[in-house]
User: Fold Polysaccharide biosynthesis protein C-terminal domain-containing protein from Clostridium thermosuccinogenes.
Amino acid sequence: MKSRLSVNMMANMASFAISLLISMWLTPYIINSLGAEAYGFIPLTQQLVNYMSVMTVALNGMASRFFTYAVKSGDRGLAEQYFNTSLVSSSVLAAFIVIPLALMTCFIDKIMNVPDYLLSDVQTSLVLYGAVFILSLMGTAFGMAMFCENRLDISGILSSGNTVLRSLAILLLLYMFAPKMWFVALGTLIASAIFFVQNIYFFRKLLPDISFRPSRFDLARLMELLSSGIWNSVNFVGATLFLQIDLLVANWALGAKAAGEYSALLQLSNLLRGFVASVIVVFNPTMVDLYARKDIHGLVEYSNKAVKITGIMMALPVGLACGFGGQLLALWLGEGFRDYGFLFGLMTLHLSVNLSVQSLFGIFSAANRVKIPAIVTLAMGMVNFTLAVALSMALDMGAFGIVIAGMTVLTAKNLVFTPIYSSIITKQPLTAYYKGILMPAAGAAFVVLTGAILQRMFPVESWFGLFSLSGVVSAIYCIMIFSVVLEEGERRKVKSIMLQMFNVHRKEV
Assistant:
């Protein structure tokens, strides 16, 4: 279990590193090619299409859980029913989704502020992202094999390849033809099509006994998935109001150009969110297994360890982003973005706590107790949306209003509800899951403070200076974590992993 966890974690960290490097390079290239105003509509159109997920997560939100239980219990027939029910239902749903996608495309200028010269490009992007969404929906059933077999290292490798292919396709299109905003969506579609085929291949390789047989579609299994997954849809609406409404509010409140600049700032925080999503997925199969075996003590210990590991990893990039925000933006996106440093810091600082707590979400799924979290997420999401509109538009706080609303409401939810409800589910003391929550905030604050002190001594004026100081801060942070935060057993584990990596390197040399 531990070796598989380490492999999965390394694969997902590598995937994140590749995504980070490509995004850091690709974002300013696209902005320079298209302009900030056009760039802002790229993530916004993608988000609008992703809102359609509210109709799909009810179906597929719990499919991996039920499918895994069936496979692990040796019931091949039941596993085939879950797989084929998910795949057939997804195919039918994909056909129906075309209708709202078409309506959204036709009336997009009624939904948000779109300059006339960009209207056709925005509509083309919506069509292409719609195709990406449908491919993703169809591929969900095939992706269950990697979750079931705990081969998320394969998933990480495929995600990395998808990121590289997408970037290469976008670059070729922008280089070979007159730049168009929808080239980004087209590049994404090309990579997604290849990713879809790869998912099918690995499903057949990992689970050759499970086959596609539409006749195995079962209405009872569909109702079982929907009855459990309906609360995932409710949760998705709430999460959307938390995490994916800011660009639309920015478009309404700030206008197209300022919203485009705001969307560029969101790239790093979105990457961090994506990284954590890939990390916590690594923990979920083990959580499901522990809960299925009624090992609640092991689940509590493992969950706290997951929060701690996630927090340790998140505190460093969050702290660096906050501490070097202005300098990073100036070097990365241009001198005109330097003044956004404080806003950028507000966007990212709270993530050190909020993202690490997300490791506990696996408990909700493992226990199939998603109703209450969904209702709370929906209620808090509505509060966030209302507060963001009120602060940014009614009180004229602009982008700061959007960021403050999200930071405040999300932190309140994750510091109060998430750990306490996890305790209630597992019948533990209410403080059982607070063990690792405060450490990420302390770690991020340590990184910010260390970076601020070093900047006073050595002002950052180049990429070399930024990387050098970041390296020094990272080394100090790692030493502090190793000597102060990690327990003796954890230190031995780290030493063992480092020795293994060193020995492998020596053999290769």
Remarks:
- The CA atoms of residues 323 and 453 lie 10 Å apart.
- Residues 245-459 form one domain.
